[in-house]
Design brief:
The chain starts with a helix and ends with a helix. Strand 4 and strand 5 (about 970-975) form a beta hairpin. It has about 1100 residues and is an alpha+beta fold. The protein contains 35 helices and 10 strands. The strands form 3 sheets. It has a 5-stranded antiparallel β-sheet. It is extended, with a radius of gyration of 47 Å. It has 6 domains: about 1-225, no CATH class; about 260-305 and about 335-445, no CATH class; about 460-485 and about 500-755, no CATH class; about 810-895, no CATH class; about 910-995, SH3 type barrels, CATH 2.30.30; about 1000-1080, Alpha-Beta Plaits (2-Layer Sandwich), CATH 3.30.70.
Length: about 1100
C-alpha cells in the first residue's frame, strides 16, 4: 500500500512540477482580440497583434491536448502492474484467450458461414491495425530511450529562451500589442511546460511503459494469430460448403441429363458445362486466396524488417556491423521480374473475367421470363405432339431453365469474388513492389557511404574462395544439378542452343556480307542507307553469341532460383558477365576491318585499329572479372567470397586504367592522328579530361579495397552506364548523319543526271556532237548538308544527353532529387493513388515545364524541315502542298507541347476551361480581326485555295505567294516587292488564282497591219509563228481573229495558251519579235499611226519659210 501511495505522490509531483506559471485562457485571448479589432492601431501593428493572438490560441490548444495525453499516461502507469499481470496470464495460457471468444459454428449453412467469415475478417483487420499501432508505439519508446534526454534538453533550452524573452518584455498593460505578445509567449511557455512534464513522466517510467507496450504487442500478436486461425477455418468451411453445393448441383444436372427427353438434353449439357466452369472457378479462387495470404505475410514481414532496419540505423549510426547487415539485406531482397510477368498475365485474366461476367449478366437477363422461353421452345415442336408428352416436356424445360438460372447466378457471385480477389492481389503486388523498391533505395543510400570490412590480403581471403569454387565435388554437384534442371525444363536450354547454332552458322556469311556492303559504299550507284542497316545487323550477329549464351543461361537459372537457391550465385555471375560481353563485343565488331565503322561511319583509322587491338585482350578479362564479382555477391556466400569479388573488382578497375592510358595518353596513336589532322577540344584540353578519367577507376579500386565496396561498385556501374549511353548516342548520331550523307549524295547525283539530260536534249536540237559528257560522282561534305536538319540533330542529341545523364545519376546526386523536394506556394490537383488531391507544385515540375517549353519551341522551328527533307519530298506533292504540311506539323507540335507543359505543371482542362472561355469572349471582342485572320490562316492551310508558289491577283496586285503565316500571307510581285495581306481578305474577298487547279494561261497579242495588205496571209503567218513556238500549247490551239477596221490599221489578235506562267513574258517577247520579222519578210507593213489635218481654205494662207542663222552662216 505504501508503494502505491509513493507512486501516486511521484505522479502528482511530475504532473505539477512545471505548472507553477500561470497560463492564459481562451477568454483572455478573445477579449484582447476584440479590443485590438476595435482599437486605433495601425494596420501593420493590428495584423501583427492578431497573428500573435492566433499563435497563443494554437499553443493553448496544443497544451491542453498534451495535458490530456499526460493524464492518460498517468492512468496507464497506474494501471500498468495490474495490466501486466493480466496479459502475462493470457500469454502463459493462450487457451484462455480462445475460450473467451464465441465458438465457431462450422456446421451452419453456407449463408451463415459467410456472415461469420465477414465478421471474423473485420475483427482480424481491426486487430491487425491495432498491432501495427502498438508496434509503432514500441518503436517510438525505443527511439525515446536513445533520444529522450536530447529532446528534454532541447525543450528546457526553448523554455529558458521564452522565459528570458518574457523577462525582457516591458510591462505595459495599456499597450495591446505588448499584451498580445506576452499572451503568445505565456501560451507557448505553458505548452513547453506541458510537453516537458509529459516527457519527464515518460522518461521516469520508460521501463514500465516499454514492458507494458511489449506485452500488449505480444497479446495483439496472439489475438491476430487466433483471428487468422479462425478466419482460415471459416474460409475452409465456406469453401467446402461452396464446393459441396456446386458438386451436388453438378451431380443433379448430370443425372437429369441422363433421364431428360432428347429435346431437353442440349439444355442440360450447357448447364453441366456451366457447373463445371464453376468448379474450375472455385479452385482458382482458392488458389488466389492462398497467394493473397502468402503475399500479405511477406509484405508485413518486409515492412517490419524495413522499420527495424531504419530504427537501427537511426539509433546506432553507421559502422561495419550495420554495413554488413545492410549489405546482407540488400542482397536478399526478392527479385521483382516474376511480379512483372505475373502482373501482365493477371491483367489479361482480369479482362477476360470482366468480359465473362458481362456475358453471364446478359444470359441472366434472357432468363427473366422463363414462361415465355418455355412457350417459344414448345412452339418449335411438331403440332401433333400428344398433350401428355407436351406436359412432360414443359416440366423438364422449366427444370432445365431454372437449373441454368441457378448456375448463372452462382457463377455471377463467384466471378464477383474472383474479380475482387484478382484486384486485391494486384494491389498487394503493387504495394509489395513499391515497398521492395523503397527498401532497396534506402539500403543503397545508406550503404553508399558506409565503410564495410577492409580487404585482408591473407591466404584465406584470397585463396579460400578459389579452392571452394574449384572443389571437384562441388563442380560435380553443380553439373549434376544443372543436368537435372535441364531434364525438368528442357525448353529454354534447347531454344538457346538452337539460337547459338544459328548464329554460329550465320557468322561466316555475315563477315562476307559486311565486306561486300563496305565495297558497295564506294560507288554512288550502289550506295544505300539500307546497306548500312544491313551492316549493323551483321555486326550484331558477329558480336551476339557470347552475350546470348551468358544472358540466356543466366535468365534461365534465375527463373529457377527460388527452387534451386544454390544456383543463384551462378545466375548472378552470368548475368553480370553478359554486360561487358555485349558492350565491348559490339564495340570491337564495329571496329573490325572493312566493317561498319570503317566503310559506313568513316571513323578514324587509328581509332578503329587501336580499339580492335586492345579490346582483344580486354574483353575476356572484363567478362571474367564481372563473372567473379557477380558470383560472389550472393547473400548465401561467406564474407571471404565477397572479398574475392572486391579484389576482382579492383583488378578490373586497374585494368580499365591501363586501357585508358594505352588509348588516350599524350603520345598515343589516336592523339597523334587527331593533332595532325583536325585539332579539337580533345587535343587542346587533353590534360583537363585525361587525368580525371585516369583517376576515376584508380579511386574506385582504392575505395573498394578500403571497405567502400558498395559505393565503388555503385559508382562504377553508373560510370559505365554513362559511357555506354554516350557511345550508343554517338552511334545513333553517326547513323543519322550517314543517312543524311547518302540522301544528299543521291539528290546531287540526280540533279547532275537531270542537267546531263537537258544538255543531251539541247545538243540533239542543235545537231551537235552525240557524245554525252561524263557524270562525276560527288563527294558530299557534311558541312554542306541541310543546316536546319543538322541543327535539329544537334539539339536533339544535346537534349538526349542531358536527359540520359539525369536518368542515370538522379538517384546518386542528392542535388537532382532536391528539385523534387522544394515546394512552391502553388497547389495543383493530381491523381495520388487513383484519387485526385491537391498537392504542392515542386521546383522539378517547373523545371520540367521550362525544358518542355524550350524543346517544343526548338522542335516546332526545326522538325518541319526534317519532315520535308525526309518524307514530303518523296511524296507526289507540290511545293505548296509540302509547305502546308510543314506548317500544320508545326502547329501540331506546338499544340502537343502546350499539352505536355500543362501536364508537367499539373494544369488540367477542367481547371482552365473557364479561363479559355473567358479569353475566347475577350478575344472575340477585343482582337476580332486577329482571331479572324488566325482562323482564316487555318482555313487556308486546310482548304488550300492558295498555295505557296501560286500566282494570284488580289486587287491591283499580281504576284507569287511566298509565305502563308498564321496571321497574314506574303505575296511577291513582279517588282520584287513583298505585299503582306491579312488572311481574312482571301476568305471573305475575291481574288484570282492563276494556278489553283490548272497552270494554263492565255496571252493576247494585237497586230495592226496597214490598209491594203493581204489579211489572210498575215493571219496565216501569225498562226504559223504561234504554232512553231515550243511554249505555245497545241490544245487548246492558238486562235487568230480579224477583230476590226481601226483608224490606222487592220486589227488582228492572237490568243495563245501557255502551259505555265514561268516563261510568260519571254514567250510574249519571242512572239512579238518573230511575228514582226515574218511580216517584214512577207512585205506586209505594220501600220503607223496616221492623222489627217484639214486646213480652212476660205481665205488666203500666208506661208513663211525661215532658215536657221547658224546654218546660213556655215
Amino acid at each position: 500500500m505504501r508503494r502505491y501511495l509513493a507512486l501516486l505522490l511521484l505522479l502528482a509531483l511530475a504532473g505539477s512540477g512545471w505548472g507553477a506559471s500561470q497560463a492564459p485562457d481562451a477568454a483572455q485571448i478573445e477579449a484582447l482580440r476584440q479590443t485590438i479589432e476595435s482599437s486605433t492601431l495601425e494596420e501593420k501593428d493590428r495584423k501583427q497583434a492578431l497573428e500573435w493572438l492566433g499563435q497563443a490560441l494554437q499553443w493553448l490548444q496544443q497544451a491542453q491536448a498534451t495535458e490530456a495525453k499526460q493524464r492518460r499516461l498517468q492512468e496507464t502507469v497506474r494501471q500498468a502492474p495490474r495490466r501486466l499481470r493480466e496479459i502475462g496470464t493470457l500469454l502463459e495460457r493462450p487457451e484462455r484467450l480462445a475460450r473467451s471468444w464465441p465458438p465457431l459454428r462450422l456446421e451452419r449453412p453456407l449463408e451463415q458461414l459467410e456472415v461469420q467469415l465477414a465478421e471474423e475478417e473485420a475483427a482480424r483487420n481491426k486487430t491487425t491495425t491495432a498491432l501495427q499501432t502498438k508496434e509503432q508505439e514500441l518503436a517510438q519508446l525505443v527511439e525515446f530511450a536513445a533520444q529522450g534526454s536530447k529532446r528534454i534538453a532541447a525543450l528546457e533550452q526553448q523554455l529558458a529562451e521564452v522565459a528570458r524573452e518574457l523577462e525582457n518584455l516591458p510591462e505595459n498593460p495599456a499597450d495591446p500589442l505588448q499584451r498580445a505578445r506576452r499572451l503568445s509567449l505565456e501560451a507557448r511557455r505553458h505548452w513547453l511546460e506541458a510537453q516537458l512534464a509529459l516527457l519527464r513522466l515518460q522518461q521516469s517510467h520508460l521501463d514500465l511503459l516499454t514492458k507494458l507496450t511489449r506485452a500488449e504487442r505480444d497479446l495483439l500478436r496472439l489475438e491476430a494469430a487466433e483471428h487468422r486461425s479462425r478466419s482460415e477455418r471459416l474460409r475452409q468451411a465456406v469453401a467446402l460448403a461452396r464446393e459441396h453445393k456446386v458438386l451436388s448441383a453438378s451431380s443433379t444436372t448430370e443425372l437429369a441429363l441422363r433421364t431428360a427427353a432428347p429435346e431437353v438434353q442440349p439444355l442440360y449439357e450447357e448447364n453441366l458445362e456451366l457447373w463445371q466452369e464453376l468448379e474450375h472457378l472455385l479452385a482458382e479462387g482458392k488458389h488466389l486466396k492462398h497467394r493473397i495470404d502468402a503475399l500479405q505475410n511477406r509484405l508485413t514481414a518486409l515492412q517490419r524488417d524495413f522499420e527495424r532496419i531504419r530504427q537501427a540505423v537511426e539509433l546506432t549510426g553507421t559502422d561495419e556491423a550495420i554495413a554488413a547487415m545492410l549489405s546482407q539485406r540488400l542482397r536478399s531482397l526478392p527479385n521483382l521480374d516474376s511480379f512483372r510477368r505475373e502482373g501482365a498475365i493477371r491483367r489479361t485474366r482480369l479482362k477476360q473475367a470482366v468480359v465473362r461476367r458481362f456475358e453471364i449478366e446478359e444470359a441472366l437477363r434472357q432468363l427473366e421470363d422463363i414462361d415465355a422461353l418455355i412457350e417459344a421452345s414448345l412452339a418449335q415442336l411438331p403440332p401433333d405432339l400428344p398433350p401428355g408428352r407436351r406436359a412432360i416436356l414443359r416440366l423438364q424445360l422449366r427444370e432445365a431453365l431454372e437449373n441454368r438460372r441457378e448456375a448463372l447466378q452462382t457463377l455471377q457471385q463467384e466471378y464477383t469474388r474472383y474479380l475482387s480477389s484478382l484486384s486485391k492481389l494486384d494491389a498487394l503486388e503493387h504495394q509489395f513492389y513499391e515497398q521492395v523498391q523503397a527498401y532497396r533505395r534506402f539500403l543503397q543510400r545508406q550503404l553508399l557511404w558506409i565503410p564495410y570490412r577492409r580487404l585482408r590480403f591473407d591466404r584465406e581471403t584470397l585463396l579460400g574462395p578459389l579452392k571452394y569454387a574449384l572443389e571437384p565435388s562441388l563442380i560435380q554437384d553443380r553439373l549434376r544439378q544443372l543436368a537435372v534442371l535441364a531434364r525438368r525444363d528442357p525448353g529454354p536450354p534447347a531454344a538457346l542452343s538452337l539460337a547459338l547454332l544459328v548464329l554460329l552458322f550465320l557468322q561466316r556469311r555475315a563477315a562476307r556480307d559486311l565486306t561486300a556492303l563496305g565495297q558497295a559504299t564506294r560507288s554512288i550507284r550502289s550506295d544505300r542507307f539500307s546497306n548500312t542497316l544491313r551492316a549493323l545487323i551483321d555486326t550484331l550477329i558477329l558480336a551476339a553469341p557470347l552475350p546470348l549464351l551468358l544472358f540466356g543461361a543466366g535468365l534461365w537459372l534465375r527463373r529457377h532460383s527460388l527452387t534451386e537457391p544454390e544456383l543463384t550465385p551462378l545466375a548472378a555471375g552470368l548475368l553480370l558477365a553478359g554486360r561487358p560481353a555485349a558492350a565491348f563485343g559490339i564495340l570491337r565488331q564495329l571496329c573490325r576491318p572493312e566493317g561498319l565503322a570503317q566503310r559506313h561511319l568513316r571513323w578514324l583509322q587509328v581509332t578503329r585499329e587501336s580499339l580492335w587491338f586492345h579490346l582483344r585482350w580486354f574483353l575476356p578479362w572484363a567478362v571474367l572479372c564481372a563473372f567473379t564479382v557477380g558470383i560472389t555477391g550472393s547473400p548465401s556466400l561467406t564474407p571471404a567470397s565477397l572479398g574475392l569479388g572486391r579484389l576482382s573488382f579492383a583488378l578490373f578497375m586497374l585494368t580499365s586504367t591501363v586501357l585508358i592510358w594505352k588509348l588516350w595518353h599524350r603520345h598515343s596513336p589516336i592523339l597523334n592522328q587527331l593533332e595532325a589532322s583536325r585539332p579539337s577540344w580533345v587535343v587542346r584540353y587533353h590534360g583537363l579530361w585525361f587525368y580525371p578519367a585516369l583517376a576515376v577507376p584508380l579511386e574506385l579500386a582504392a575505395a573498394a579495397l578500403a571497405g567502400y565496396y558498395y559505393a565503388a561498385f555503385y559508382l562504377a556501374e553508373k560510370a559505365f552506364r554513362t559511357l555506354w549511353f554516350f557511345l550508343a548516342l554517338m552511334l545513333v548520331k553517326d547513323l543519322l548523319l550517314r543517312w543524311l550523307y547518302v540522301t544528299e549524295r543521291h539528290l546531287r547525283y540526280q540533279e547532275i543526271l537531270r542537267r546531263r539530260e537537258e544538255l543531251r536534249r539541247q545538243r540533239a536540237e542543235e545537231a551537235a556532237a552525240t557524245e554525252l559528257p561524263p557524270v562525276e560522282e560527288p563527294e558530299v561534305d557534311f558541312g554542306r548538308l541541310s543546316e536546319q536538319t543538322r541543327r535539329l540533330f544537334r539539339i536533339g542529341f544535346f537534349i538526349a544527353g542531358v536527359a540520359g545523364l539525369w536518368w542515370i545519376w538522379q538517384d546518386a546526386i542528392p542535388a537532382l532529387n532536391l528539385l523534387k523536394e522544394i515546394t512552391l506556394p502553388i497547389t495543383t490537383r493530381r491523381l495520388v493513388g487513383g484519387v485526385p488531391k491537391e498537392v504542392p507544385l515542386t521546383l522539378a515540375d517547373v523545371t520540367s515545364g521550362i525544358l518542355l517549353g524550350i524543346l517544343t519551341m526548338l522542335a516546332a522551328r526545326n522538325l518541319p524541315g526534317l519532315l520535308e527533307f525526309a518524307v514530303l519530298r518523296h511524296l507526289p506533292l507540290s511545293q505548296g502542298g509540302r509547305y502546308a504540311w510543314s506548317a500544320l506539323t508545326q502547329y501540331l507540335i506546338t499544340a502537343v507541347g502546350i499539352y505536355l507543359i500543362c501536364g508537367a505543371l499539373g494544369i488540367q482542362w477542367s481547371e482552365i476551361q473557364w479561363l479559355v472561355a473567358a479569353m475566347s469572349v475577350g478575344l472575340g471582342f477585343g482582337l476580332q480581326e486577329v482571331v479572324a485572320n488566325f482562323v482564316s490562316g487555318l482555313i487556308l492551310l486546310f482548304e488550300r485555295p492558295i498555295r505557296v508558289g501560286d500566282v494570284v491577283t488580289i486587287g491591283d496586285t499580281t504576284g507569287t505567294v511566298s509565305r502563308i503565316r498564321i496571321r497574314a500571307t506574303t505575296i511577291l510581285n513582279w517588282d520584287r516587292q513583298e505585299l503582306v495581306i491579312p488572311n481574312k481578305n482571301f476568305i471573305t474577298g475575291e481574288f484570282i488564282n492563276w494556278t489553283l487547279t490548272d497552270t494554263i494561261n492565255r496571252i493576247v497579242i494585237q497586230i495592226g497591219v496597214a490598209y491594203g495588205c493581204n489579211v489572210e496571209k498575215a493571219m496565216a503567218i501569225v498562226r504559223e509563228t504561234a504554232r512553231a513556238h515550243p511554249e505555245v500549247l497545241d490544245d487548246p490551239a492558238p486562235l487568230i481573229t480579224f477583230e476590226s477596221f481601226g483608224d490606222n490599221s487592220l486589227l488582228i489578235i492572237l490568243r495563245a495558251y501557255l502551259g505555265t506562267l514561268d516563261n510568260r513574258l519571254s514567250t510574249i517577247t519571242d512572239l512579238h519579235r518573230q511575228i514582226y520579222q515574218r511580216l517584214n519578210e512577207a512585205g506586209i507593213e505594220i501600220a503607223f499611226p496616221q492623222r489627217d489635218v484639214h486646213l480652212d481654205s476660205k481665205g488666203p494662207l500666208e506661208v513663211v519659210v525661215r532658215r536657221d542663222q547658224r546654218t546660213s552662216s556655215s
